[in-house]
Amino acid sequence: MPHKNDYSCIVICDTGEVKKWTYVHGLYGFSKFLNEKHPGWHYFNVYNRRTREYLARFSPNDFIPQFI
């Protein structure tokens, strides 16, 4: 079972701006937040918050699971 806030995410927006969220709990919910608040996002990279290990990259048209 995943722990709370297991992920850190780095988001690349359409303006070239890079944004980082350190405490992300669910990836699907995070993608819905991005669609609502930052509709021009291109992709986001997911990292394990505790070990900083790279886990995955998701784009707006990808299937985004709640947890990896």
What's the quick description here?
With 68 residues, the protein is α+β, with helices and mostly antiparallel strands.
Task: Give the overall silhouette.
Answer: globular
Low-confidence segments, given as residue ranges, are none
> What helical percentage do the residues reach?
10-25%
- Quick one: how many beta strands? 4
- Average pLDDT value? 95
Number of discrete helical segments: 1
Radius of gyration: 11 Å
Q: How widely separated are the two ends?
A: 11 Å
- The biggest beta sheet, please? 4 strands, antiparallel
Report the order of strands and helices: EEHEE
Judged by helices, strands and strand pairing, the structural class is alpha+beta
What proportion strand? 35-45%
Strand order of the largest sheet: 2-1-3-4
Features:
68 residues, alpha+beta, 4 strands, 16% helix, KTSC domain-containing protein
Can you walk through the features of this model?
With 68 residues, the chain is an alpha+beta fold. 16% of the residues lie in helices and 40% in strands. The chain is built from 1 helix and 4 strands, in the order E-E-H-E-E. A 4-stranded antiparallel β-sheet has the order 2-1-3-4, with helices on one face. A hairpin with a 5-residue loop joins strand 3 and strand 4. The longest helix has 11 residues. The chain is globular and about 30 Å long. The N and C termini lie close together (11 Å). The mean pLDDT is 95.
